[in-house]
Specification:
This protein is mainly α. 77% of the residues lie in helices and 0% in strands. The model has no long low-confidence stretch (mean pLDDT 83). It is a multi-pass membrane protein.
């Protein structure tokens, strides 16, 4: 029985995990803007080779994450989510710190690959809260939890760039390790999980992760939607500074302008996610998700025609509001359709799909920009959003039959 004015345990867990998500988001994004520059210090590479190694260093984390996540999710449903949170936090503490000591590019790529295999803190935070939060607070809680990761991803590149410029490219990796150590301690002492492991000889122990799911086609649609959201969101990352430089005709502080344009969606998501999550609790996740996809497509298409950085920045800000209606809501839909006994496995599969999207989006964008022009990336992204809208609409129409 929770006394009036006293926080329930799931609320205490949410605040602790918000801090852990913030540390993870900030640390993991801190080194990404200058990763190619760090690679360039590890050898004398021609342009094509530098691009190749930078791409491998960036994508290797997501590739290993996509492969290993389901295995960790299966283990989480047997041992609990808190041990998996600690496993991810400790693993990233070690790998991030060691990355700062990289002496050659292959050591960097290998450590990034290992980091991806031990990652999954944010995903397990979602799974733990999804298994505990009352259904009537699910949307708002997932939205609030999202602001931790988004807030971290917003400040990480800014502080990482300042620190790298003043102290060198290796220091942000050490700070990443320190942040994950903080996440480890916060999780160890601040999170309490009431977990009952499934008995080995029980019927549930041998069941598939999809057994007992109410609307399996909706859950699969959320997997595909998560992948397409990540692909669309990340597609602009490889070309953002190049497109901004083109709009500014090479004049002015391109790096600063690029940083502002990159940060604006995160600011909007940070402001809108809890409110849109709460709205989904009242009017239903389906309406918020579809509205977010329609808004997203309506914003990406006009970016093809922009002529100034200001207009691009305004459109990017509103894309952040659309993003706030997408990823948290897909997490909410999955939590509402998944039994507690398999929630970690389902969320880990979703993480794999997200990781695949994080690889596919930038690769497609780089190809489109290289063959055609930067502007055509927005056309490509619009098509990704339309495909996503079709998948979600199909799933909900099938649910009515």
């Amino acid at each position: 029985m929770v006394k009036k004015g006293q926080l329930a345990q799931w609320q205490k867990n949410m605040y602790a995990l918000w801090l852990g998500n913030f540390a993870t988001g900030a640390g993991s994004s801190m080194s990404l803007p200058f990763l190619p520059l760090f690679v360039s210090t590890l050898g004398n590479f021609p342009k094509w080779e530098l691009t190749l190694y930078a791409g491998l260093a960036f994508s290797s984390t997501f590739l290993s994450q996509a492969i290993v996540s389901p295995l960790w999710g299966k283990l989480a449903d047997k041992t609990g989510r808190k041990p998996m949170l600690l496993r991810a936090a400790i693993g990233m503490t070690i790998t991030a710190t060691l990355t700062g000591f990289s002496t050659n590019v292959w050591m960097l790529i290998a450590l990034r690959l290992i980091q991806g295999a031990f990652s999954g803190y944010i995903n397990n935070a979602y799974a733990l809260i999804a298994s505990e939060v009352p259904r009537e607070y699910s949307g708002k809680t997932m939205g609030t939890l999202t602001t931790g990761a988004v807030g971290g991803q917003l400040v990480g590149p800014v502080f990482g760039g300042i620190i790298a410029g003043a102290l060198g490219y290796r220091i942000p990796f050490f700070i990443f390790g320190a942040l994950m150590l903080i996440a480890t301690l916060v999780t160890l002492f601040g999170v309490k999980e009431n977990f009952t492991p499934i008995k080995k000889d029980s019927q549930q122990a041998g069941q598939s992760a999809f057994a007992g799911i109410k609307n399996i086609h909706i859950v699969w649609a959320m997997f595909v939607s998560s992948m397409l959201i990540q692909a669309a969101t990340n597609s602009f990352n490889p070309i953002i500074s190049l497109f901004v430089r083109q709009l500014m005709h090479g004049n002015g502080n391109v790096a600063f302008a690029s940083g502002i344009v990159a940060a604006l969606p995160g600011i909007a998501t940070l402001l809108a996610a809890p409110r849109l999550g709460q709205l989904s609790d009242h009017i239903g996740a389906k309406k918020v998700l579809i509205a977010g996809l329609v808004l997203s497509g309506a914003l990406f298409f006009p970016m093809y025609f922009v002529q100034t950085v200001v207009v691009l920045g305004v459109l990017r800000f509103f894309v952040g509001i659309a993003d706030a209606a997408l990823m948290p809501v897909t997490q909410t839909v999955m939590s509402l359709n998944t039994p507690p006994s398999s929630v970690s496995r389902i969320f880990s599969y979703n993480q794999s799909f997200q990781a695949i999207g994080s690889v596919i989006g930038p690769m497609l964008a780089s190809g489109v920009a290289g063959i055609l022009d930067y502007r055509y990336v927005f056309i490509m992204t619009t098509f990704l959003v339309l495909i996503n809208l079709g998948v979600v609409t199909w799933a909900y129409r099938k649910d009515r039959k």
